[in-house]
Amino acid sequence: MRVAVISDIHGNDVAFAAALADIEAAQVDQIVCLGDAIQGGPQPAQVVARLRAAGIPTVMGNADDWLLTGADSGAEQIEPERRRRMDDVRDWALTQLAPADREFIAAFQPTITLDLGAGQQLLCFHGSPTSYDDVLLPSTPDAEAEALLGNSAAQLFTGGHTHLQQIRRLGARRFFNPGSIGFAYSHQQDEAGFRADPWAEYAILTADGAHFGLEFRRVPFDVDALVAAYRDGGRPHADAAIEQYRGASS
């Protein structure tokens, strides 16, 4: 069985379309999305339409729950000016979504379990199996990471949230993060010079009985088309978002 694991599209349908074309060429059996699919970028309704058309089961991420509810979990301290900009983008995004779109997002699940055959399961979530706000990084101590995974009988775990492709062994279990479809970036950079990457990241898990293989993939997308979507779509604070891709477009 081949499973394409995607995450963190963040309203970037240009990148999503490029990734799905690559996934189709890879001939997978299943696609699963780990959440934060809609909020942030210039194309929230287009991403909803593509997810729905492709029939992709999707986990609820923190950003999409906040998009629907406006409720702040308090997991991250956000400066007032950044909060104001986030609220502007949220208000705009809600105007782009039809009632049926909002119902579709509200149906995202806290976790998804995929049967890989031969008694193997893949547990899919956003931050951790119990909270979309939990952060699991390569630097997270093993004991803390194992505690975040909980007592599930699954041997394979996948989560998003950090926009960072990674794989690690935790006892007899394996955890991986497929990276971000719509907003990949290097964690080794200063905020003042922040730059987003001009590609979509995802992973393909191949399961054959007790044998497993994992492939991390990086798919370039048309940055000029994304810039046009920001400029033409009316998304607030578009110039600041476009600046994150400076030098990536022609």
From TrEMBL:
Domain Calcineurin-like phosphoesterase: 1-189
Entry's Gene Ontology cellular component terms: cytoplasm
CDD domains named among the record's database cross-references: MPP_superfamily
Any one Pfam family match given in the protein's UniProt record, by short name: Metallophos_2
GO MF annotation terms: phosphatase activity
InterPro entries per the UniProt record, alphabetical: Ap4A_hydrolase, Calcineurin-like_PHP_lpxH, Metallo-depent_PP-like, Pesterase_MJ0912
Family membership: Belongs to the metallophosphoesterase superfamily. YfcE family.
Protein name: Calcineurin-like phosphoesterase domain-containing protein
Organism expressing this protein natively: Kouleothrix aurantiaca
